[in-house]
């Protein structure tokens, strides 16, 4: 029973409760870096890390956090993990850190992190919260990776920095520019909702 | 270039060519959720503009005079968020005190301003682009106006959309994102006018 519960906690955010398609959360900070697959990978790993560990920490402290200031406490916890991500990136991947610019810091305000903490971690035990955070992060990650792959392929003819398409390919400049991100995300949402099922929109 | 000119260039750039919502995707969550009604959009847009105009220069002062002298730059995320949260609280209390209907209609979205990416984003951009105090102030104001412009335009378009036939799976966020994409393209048209720095 407990085991199947955990499994369900893990699989739901990947499919029918996907944070991006169903809840349309958290696209703010990461959509901006989806014009390159590599940058996106680093960002989604950061988001997954922050979501999982903040959920876990908040869940550990859930009985001690006064409800009046809980948003503040949660934000502090999330910020602490994001600072970790920032410091690690800066130390080991300074080039990547420079390219991502302010977007690493913006993981703090990513609605998914706060959303999972508020909606799940506050009322659940640490282990399920960790799993839920991890799964939400991954559910978010694969969607953004798909978007990034499409944008990089169409916009630069390459994947992960390697040229894939031959010289016959004309780059769609619009894809690596801001409107491209909006269009691809919209199309992705459209396709998923059309094929997987009609979920109720929360927006 | 004299710094005054640069500051105004940054101001206009942050409204049009470097619109924080349409080119950096910041503040999308509230943008998609609140843009259904013109009145609410205006209210939230005004609140965001106010908070941005105040917090960006405020964070500049905190960063220059508190964090840099003590070598605490790595704490900027936490410190900026605290400053912003305090200011949002103030905005909330002011609205509650003086404008009951606006407070009612914004309801749950006010606390969300704290986690509105645009606000923290502006402060982080201000640090990375090494703006001066004046420039940060104008950048905050400009970003706010740009955000307001985008959300109000969006709510106007969405009002028209109610009578339009849209594939069911595209309704809501899907179509909003496509419109946002077109708006981003339209705003790109300004980009020849001012260089974004």
Characterize the structure shown.
The complex is a heterodimer of chains A (203) and B (197). Chain A is an all-alpha fold. Chain A has one domain (12-196). Helix content of chain A is 65%, strand content 2%. Chain A is globular and about 60 Å long. The two termini of chain A are 33 Å apart. Chain B is an all-alpha fold and 197 residues long. Chain B has one domain (3-192). Chain B has nine helices and no strands. The two termini of chain B are 13 Å apart. The interface between A and B is large, with 44 and 48 residues.
Task: Fill in the keyword field for this structure.
heterodimer; A: 203 residues; mainly alpha; 2% strand; B: 197 residues; 0% strand; globular
Please give the number of β-strands of chain B.
0
Largest sheet of chain A: 2 strands, antiparallel
Radius of gyration of chain B: 17 Å
Q: Taking Cα atoms only, what radius of gyration of chain A do you get, to the nearest Å? A: 18 Å
Please give the order of strands in the largest beta sheet of chain A: 1-2
Q: What fraction, in percent, of the residue positions of chain A are helical?
A: 55-70%
For the largest beta-sheet of chain B, the strand count, sense and barrel status come to:
none
Class of secondary structure makeup of chain A: mainly alpha
Tertiary shape of chain A:
globular
Please give the oligomerization state of what you see.
Answer: heterodimer
* Largest interface, chains and sizes: A-B, 44 and 48 residues
- The average pLDDT value of chain B, as a whole number, equals 83
- Helix and strand composition category of chain B: mainly alpha
Give helix and strand order of chain A, one letter per element, not per position.
Answer: HHHHHHHEEHH
The best one-word shape of chain B is globular
What can be said about this structure in brief?
Chain A is built from 9 helices and 2 strands. Chain A has 203 residues and is mainly alpha-helical. Chain B is an all-alpha fold and 197 residues long.
